[in-house]
Amino acid sequence: MEIEKSQSPNKSTVQQQILVEKNKNGNLGLFNKLQKERKNLPIFKHRQGLLDKIKSNQISVIAGETGCGKTTQIPQYLIEEGLNKNRMIAVTQPRRVAAITIAQRVAQEMNTTVGNKVGYSVRFEEAVDKNNTKLLYMTDGMLLRETIVDPNLSRFSIIVIDEAHERTINSDLLISLLKQLSERRKDLKIIIMSATIETEKFANFFETENIIYLEGRCHPIEVFYSKKPHADYLDAALNTILQIHFEEQDGDILCFLVGQEDIEDMQQMLEEKIELFPKEAKKLNICTLYAALPSHLQLLAFEKSQEGERKVVLSTNIAETSVTIDGIKYVVDPGLVKTRKYNPNKLIEMLLVVPVSKSSAMQRAGRAGRQSAGKCFRLYTKYTHDTLAEFMLPEILRSNLSTVILQMKAIGIKDVKGFQFIDRPHEDQFIESIENLQQMNALDANENITLHGKEMAELPLEPIYAHFMLVAFATNPNSISVVLSAISLMQVENLFFIPKGAKISLLDVLLRFQLGNSDQLTKVNMLHQYYLAKNKKSFCKENFINQKNIKKALEVRQQLENYFLDILKKRSKKNQKQNQANIQQQSEEQQIQEELAKGNTLKKLQEEHKTAIQQEINTEEFISCIAKGLSVKAAKLNNDGTYTIIRSNIQAYIHPESLLFYSKPKPDYIIFNEVVSTIKTYLRDITEISFSDFKEISK
Ligand code: CDP
Ligand code: MG
């Protein structure tokens, strides 16, 4: 980055040259240090053997302990040997944080900056140089989207599916598609990398015997269990961290927590405790690691601890296998993970906190023994551990398949049920997801993708939100600005941060922005006011808004706006073509499409800035759009104050964090955005709709 900066055109060339040299030397120091580290990784002595096997096989399956160097080293070896043959190498990751941090690390190791030779590409964000990038770390979702546009993935000569053992839907699907592609593109090399789990399964799937096992470097780890189950896992984790800090020898701590919210709570509780530390106590530095954290803050977790200090890293599951933090000697594992779970009988997908599997618990413990003997504190009993499942069920077997099926259809796979999956989803999952897509008019009665479905697949959103956006625009083009904002806000978590002990509740904050009987509109109102605010920082402070997350929402909004305008561009191009051809017979779809394009050409829309953020928000317009667009998320009030979700017949409560939790009388009909199940089942992000809207959508 330094070198880039110094090449600013304002400086004289001599001055520039000096600066470049200086920075080069500065970078060289780091570069040399990193080269030494690279040679010390366990994988280094396998370099030649690895390359030989990869050279002589089209498909390779590589398994190795987390931290041995697969993700960062193998792609570099391939480039050093010229195996990429002037095309790009793609390395997929299940998580965006991993894609970004690893690209940064590898860029350093290759003495370059991210966005040059090494790039990354994640949803709503990328750093790639078309002419220069050789190695692209990307989320599996992004590579999957690329297969829609270019089924041959012709930009790439080598594709590495990393963390394959995590069995995300996207990586499962990619693996299946790559198997097909390997027939068409004999020149394409495919590398499947995983932790030491499920390796044979991948090899069998590809019908290859080319499995490469890399030995790791794992020191003994002592595992401790709780004597009794804990009522409050955060409390137990807090006490364990403090106990380690005061009673154990040097070495950093890694604590697994379920999400950003818990991580922020824990950070605050720890900060409060640290205030009370005696003067002579060792310093405890808190670092956090989760997807929504800006990357420069994520990198702090990877910095070495100073002599006489200790670091505690509060992390989501990302530190389980995706990234490696050096210096960890103690692991605190509450044994929980947040995951999506689909209930096919109830047609609803929920975010649930569930116990980890035995293999996850083992991976987590392994994080403590990378450099020397370590300790793992499991905050559950030995008995509980014995009852854990061996592996997590692959995501594809516990998810709604709507997104997958829509993408498969967009790629051109007609017979989705006959597709060769690594693990085949249940028949019911297919039937329900296809019905679901048909209800949204993304598939027709013959299960063929419609024009609407194709447009939906172009948007990097779950089908339901893509549908919402397009339907809202068709219902009322004027609503698009507000709908773009609402959907963007639905893609980010934790908009507010109310510190413990603050004399204000979330409700008080929401009331300041209330618009209609709607959480969505209220938040849109807040977003628009933030956008217009002169001093954004103080606006956030006054209103307890998490600035980095609201910024994120605006970024997402910008990206969605671009995607949306692209769709309109395509529509008007198509329209022109059709007019030229003067087609007599119009299908229903074409009629709809023309209807949509009528008077709403891209140009007009841009001229009027209909997509831009406006001050005025039309409440009624939005509510009728959300009722139509999100009709599958409608619920109706029961006599006892609970709600019944129309599509699934589930009973649920309004979440206490909703504005409408407090309304009296309770609204009869609502649209919600999310179902959360803890002890009770809650509906989050609610908008009241009218009886006539309700009648309209429940027909
Ligand atoms: O993919 P695998 O788990 O086999 O290992 P890796 O991600 O390639 O990491 C190899 C080593 O690089 C780790 O053990 C860390 O020592 C180091 N590393 C680092 O220090 N900082 C990063 N951001 C990434 C890796
Ligand atoms: Mg890795």
Automatic annotation (TrEMBL):
It catalyses: ATP + H2O = ADP + phosphate + H(+). Residues 240-412 form the Helicase C-terminal domain. This is RNA helicase. The keyword ATP-binding applies. SUPFAM superfamilies: P-loop containing nucleoside triphosphate hydrolases. It is an enzyme of class 3 (hydrolase). Its EC number is 3.6.4.13. It comes from the Eukaryota. GO terms for biological process: spliceosomal complex disassembly. Signal peptide: none annotated. Residues 51-215 form the Helicase ATP-binding domain. Gene3D superfamilies: DEAH helicase family, winged-helix domain, P-loop containing nucleotide triphosphate hydrolases.
